[in-house]
């Protein structure tokens, strides 16, 4: 990378990595949420299982999955480095600091929200990703596809798990509420003609994605879908 | 000085020097006028301390007109106190209530070491400016304004960036002690004008490198700096700096 100098090791370069990987993860969530929302068709999970089968077998998706993990790890690793640096930048804390007077609590709590999401992600990957990729889905549906929907139905009978998923979606919502617009600002996209659209899209995106995701365990638990 | 009717409890950070630990010390003040500025209230406190044979509180101040950027003070958890768009010298005691307890701390950042009490060393800002916040050509005398080939919008944006007085409130309030608002204002005031163009991409790289070397934190876009800036410097400047930085690193053929 001769010639690029300290492009990615400088403070702004590190933030570029946060912003780019953040936007990548935002795009991923649209795909993830869209396919999962197929359960709301309420056809016994047949359509959802077609989607899941495609995601599990298509090689472009599988390659994308590797990119996704790299992006996610880069986002986490970079956040850790930045957080440690930021703590060093203020070794003596204020006795009184009125943060709420000048900024939103969630913009100051991205590290905490992100850590909660990471803990959730470990649970979530163990619940579904490990099952579908490694230990195997036990049953098949009427179309002969692996019945991931049956796994989902079984997992979401546990009220504790449902509660954990719902709480995690609150973390996700607030993390995105700051992260969405913040990524654009970091990448330099602050423009009077677009700021309103970016802010608005960020708020709608965060709320819709989080509610859709949270609705899935709720709908399964209360038997609202078949 | 006119006496008033306000009784206050101050909790003031006292620290001998950067090598010793500091602590908040309580002081009672009586008969403070609501018309006094916050710094005049400190003058009263210091008179009392001197009369008692104690060391007065050391704090930065200069013009007391709100234009020099010298006064600092982190008051009740906010730089320059509770009012928007003012420096501490332009904050008046009428913004507080009789019987209030007011906590006063210095700017806290690794890059701003405490010199004594409420005074911190802000020369890190000078070194960031020295790294590139200038133009290397003589621009001559001021021309007739109508001869300047600079659109009004552009000139206004440059002027707004140039309003930065380098007080350090952005660093003080930022949860990461980041200097991005200051540095971006100093870059933007030149990047927006034709005279600043020849060194534009070299400047942004040098100044950002110096900012990092000084030990300021990283920006997380909370917007606290913009909210607390006494001169209303906009976050647009940070986005412009980031754009220029990306252009300098990935498009410009000049490397630093």
UniProtKB/TrEMBL annotation, chain A:
Protein's UniProt keywords contain Transmembrane helix: yes
The keyword Transmembrane helix appears for this protein: yes
GO CC, alphabetical: membrane
Transmembrane regions listed in the UniProt entry: 16-39, 59-84, 105-125, 162-181, 202-224
SUPFAM superfamilies: Fumarate reductase respiratory complex transmembrane subunits (SSF81343)
Keywords of this entry: Membrane, Transmembrane, Transmembrane helix
Protein name as it appears in the record: Succinate dehydrogenase / fumarate reductase cytochrome b subunit
UniProtKB/TrEMBL annotation, chain B:
Pfam families recorded: Fer2_3, Fer4_8
Domain 4Fe-4S ferredoxin-type: 155-185
Cofactor: [2Fe-2S] cluster; [3Fe-4S] cluster
Molecular function in Gene Ontology: 2 iron, 2 sulfur cluster binding; electron transfer activity
GO biological process, one term: respiratory electron transport chain
Alphabetical list of NCBIfam families matching this protein: PRK07570.1
Similarity-based family: Belongs to the succinate dehydrogenase/fumarate reductase iron-sulfur protein family.
PANTHER family: SUCCINATE DEHYDROGENASE, SUCCINATE DEHYDROGENASE IRON-SULFUR PROTEIN
Name under which the protein is recorded: Succinate dehydrogenase / fumarate reductase iron-sulfur subunit
Species whose genome carries this gene: Pedobacter alluvionis
Taxonomic lineage: Bacteria, Pseudomonadati, Bacteroidota, Sphingobacteriia, Sphingobacteriales
């Amino acid at each position: 990378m001769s010639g690029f100098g300290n492009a990615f090791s400088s403070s702004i370069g590190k933030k570029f990595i946060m912003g780019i990987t953040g936007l990548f993860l935002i795009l991923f969530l649209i795909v993830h949420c869209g396919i999962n929302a197929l359960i709301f068709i309420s056809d016994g999970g047949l359509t959802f299982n077609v989607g899941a089968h495609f995601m599990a077998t298509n090689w472009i998706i599988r390659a994308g999955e590797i990119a996704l993990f790299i992006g996610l790890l880069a986002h986490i690793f970079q956040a850790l480095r930045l957080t440690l640096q930021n703590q060093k930048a203020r070794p003596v804390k204020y006795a009184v600091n009125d943060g709420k007077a000048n900024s939103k609590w969630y913009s100051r709590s991205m590290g905490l929200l992100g850590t909660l999401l990471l803990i959730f992600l470990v649970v979530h990957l163990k619940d579904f990703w490990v099952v579908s990729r490694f230990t195997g889905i036990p049953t098949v549906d009427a179309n002969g596809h692996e019945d991931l929907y049956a796994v989902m139905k079984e997992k979401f009978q546990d009220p504790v798990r449902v509660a954990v998923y719902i709480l995690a979606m609150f973390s996700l919502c607030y993390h995105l509420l700051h992260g969405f617009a913040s990524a654009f600002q970091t990448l330099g996209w602050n423009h009077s003609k677009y700021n309103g659209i970016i802010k608005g899209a960020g708020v709608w995106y965060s709320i819709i994605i989080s509610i859709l995701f949270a609705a899935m365990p709720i709908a399964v638990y209360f038997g609202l879908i078949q | 000085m006119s006496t008033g009717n306000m009784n206050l409890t101050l909790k003031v950070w006292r620290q001998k020097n950067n090598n010793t630990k500091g602590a908040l010390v309580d002081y009672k003040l009586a008969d403070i006028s609501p018309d006094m500025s916050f710094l005049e209230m400190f003058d009263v406190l210091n008179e009392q301390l001197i009369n008692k044979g104690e060391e007065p509180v050391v704090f930065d101040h200069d013009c007391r007109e709100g234009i020099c950027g010298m006064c600092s003070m982190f008051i009740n958890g906010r730089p320059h106190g509770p009012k928007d768009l003012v420096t501490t010298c332009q904050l008046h005691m009428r913004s507080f209530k009789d019987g209030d307890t007011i906590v006063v701390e210095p700017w806290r950042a690794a890059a701003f070491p405490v010199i004594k009490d409420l005074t911190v060393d802000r020369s890190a800002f000078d070194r960031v400016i020295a790294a590139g916040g200038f133009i290397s050509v003589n621009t001559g005398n001021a021309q007739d304004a109508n001869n300047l080939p600079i659109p009004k919008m552009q000139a206004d944006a440059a002027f707004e960036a140039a309003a930065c007085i380098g007080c350090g409130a952005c660093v003080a309030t930022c949860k990461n002690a980041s200097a991005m608002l200051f540095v971006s204002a100093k870059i933007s005031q030149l990047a927006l004008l034709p005279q600043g163009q020849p060194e534009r991409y070299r400047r942004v790289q040098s100044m950002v490198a110096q900012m990092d070397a000084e030990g300021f934190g990283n920006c997380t876009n909370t917007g606290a700096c913009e909210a607390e800036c006494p001169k209303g410097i906009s976050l647009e400047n940070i986005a412009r700096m980031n754009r220029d930085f990306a252009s300098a690193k990935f498009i410009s053929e000049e490397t630093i």
